[in-house]
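Lab notes, practical 5.
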Amino acid sequence: MTSWPFTYGSVPLCLLLIVALCAGTSHLGDNLCSSAAITSCQECLRRGPQCFWCFKEDFLDGAGAGHRCDLQTNLLRRGCGPEFTESGVKVEVDATVSSTQVNPRDISVTLTPGSEASFVVAVKQLPRYPVDLYYLVDVSASMQENLDHLKTVGVALSLRMAEHASDLWLGFGSFVDKPVSPYINVHPTKINNPCSDYEIRCRPAHGFHHVLSLTGNMSEFTRVIKRQRISGNMDTPEGGLDAMLQATVCQRAVGWRPEAKRLLLLMTDQPSHLALDSRLAGIVVPHDGLCHLENNVYTGSTRMDHPSLGQLSDKLLENHIYSIFAVEKQQYKWYEELVRLLPGSYLGKIEFFQSPNLIDLVVDSYKSLLTDVTLSVSVDDEAFGRYWTSVSPVCPEGTTAKERSCSGVQPNQTVYFNITVGLRSCPDNGSDEDIRVMVRPVGYNESTTVRIHAKCQCGCESTGRCGETLRSPCEGTMDTNGHDQRSLQGLVNESDWNCRAEGSDVDCSGRGVCECGRCVCERGRLGSVYGKYCENDDFSCSYEGGLLCGGHGVCVLGECVCDDNWTGDSCSCPISTATCQSPDGLLCSGRGVCECGRCVCHDHKYSGDFCERCPACQSSCVSNWKCVDCHMSHGLKQQEAGHCNRTCDTDVFYNSDVKSGGKHIQCMYIGSDNCRYWFQMSSQSGRNKLHISTQAECASRGRAVGTFLSVCALTVLCGLVVVAVSRLLLQKRGWSPGDAIKDGEYNCTRKELSYIPTSNEKTVTYRRERPPDHSVEMTVHVKMPLGEPWQ
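Output from the prediction step:
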């Protein structure tokens, strides 16, 4: 047995296996294993799959037997290696056998009473399977017309199925009923020809007759169908289920191909006999589920009862066969109840079994069955009551999840089934047992075998060395009153009991009693005491938050042994630095270190969860203005500004264009020469760097501003000169605005510009009390006749 190294679909199945196992042990943190009430290996393993038993003789010497039961990680920390532990649950996957549809093919599981184990089985839907279709036809007299329609199906069906299957083979078999009274007329004239009253030559009644093995020769199929004749019986129900079982289990005679999808099509116009119906004919022997064909004729029809639905269902699953029922309208309800008990079954309603309808039924049922992936889990009958199983499907996107199945699965999609198997109890004799659980996707010719070993006894019990039965040093020396005979006879001194540590004046460190020269340590309220002299315990370690070792470790010899990813004297510090990661991706914003999951800042001025706050600090722009000004005043050449580096806290670099320099915050500084300088701060490896733009860029911008101001000043000066000259010319000529009107010059306002309202005019101003945005004033001049009062 090996681990599973490959993936199936897009999900590693080994990971799914681990996840499923972890899901079954969700109480690891509760540590249900450690208990003083546990006194044996069997009791420990019954606590659950997470519990392990340590049978090392000197493990926690002096402690009670219950300390041998614990989580495996705790036992390992306390010095009990894997070779000294007993476990109850184990899952092993055989990766040496692979398949194209169902994985894995073989799984081994070890269980103890009350435990369970989970694993994952993947089923992949492949496109364009080869298809085997076996027609099982009721040839009683009422099916005469339907049998005639079947003669034209073969070639047409082959052409239609070519769209969905790579290769189609057809076979044929017929049935009527059990050839015994009262199902048929046993009069000598009726046995060989049930249709003698109608002057028609019919076949004798038969339980099942295999006529044509599966073949890809459509002409041969058509020829065989044309030669078929009807038969007859007396009662209404037919022996369809009896014939189905034979067509299913007689693999070699029928010719089912191992690589093909197998379809068994039952055509009838009547209901079928069920189990126990044969008692009316005196047949009481249950069906054995085996093939009984001689010369292609079913010989067990008169000796064994009809199979039960459960038996038929198991045989269909075991032989990977889909069943299709093609029935007429009046029998549809009866068969609707029946197919619910047969997984992988499809029911179709046919009117007169005409060829086009029958072809559509076969194609539709095949497409439906192919896209419906259902899983069946079966346990050996003799152990069925002692085990339980559950199945949970994980369906691909776009499909529908049902109980134990997914519908609408497309080719090359994978369905994952999470399967849990549990052991309720051991056999009555208490011994171990091995059983098989078969996991079968319905209709698939591949399956998974789960081999379960029920572990009802610990392996160490066979040697008598499980730890709890170690030989006592006083064994054989105690009298009937419980006193040591050697001590009473003066053969053993009390000092020889060796229950005191060197330099100690009390037995067993005062935390136990000396029995037969050996310390039996007490179990206190806080925890357990152990050691040769009861000198050790599992509670004298650092506490954090009220929990021993912070709840992330165990106490061993007075020191905390921490779980993975935890450290510190009390196991309270996570090793991971993820909690110190600032939003910019730096550890503590580049200003500190991560200690015990929290940032410790280098500079006391900084604070916050990530050293991101500094109330006493100036902004990075303001704090570096003096440094920038120093460099600007001494030029941008590195050799000329060397002394500025001694006054600046940062390393200075000169860029051609800082404004396009990336994601850093840009700063703008206006120097004493009224030039604008751009710079930015960046931090790398704990050191700040100051990037300053070139002087050339600053100078070019200064010249542009100066030119602009000069043009503006010149324009204003010219405007003032023009206005002054124009006013002088007008005064010299004595021109006024009223004269222009008199001379016929145009005035766009139609009013004298020097107009002043007379006493009979009033100016009214309207103001909106609550304007929507701004106050709006409107001035209106109103002329009124003289003498009219203002209202």
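Observations recorded by the TA: The CA atoms of residues 276 and 398 lie 45 Å apart. The chain has a mean pLDDT of 77.
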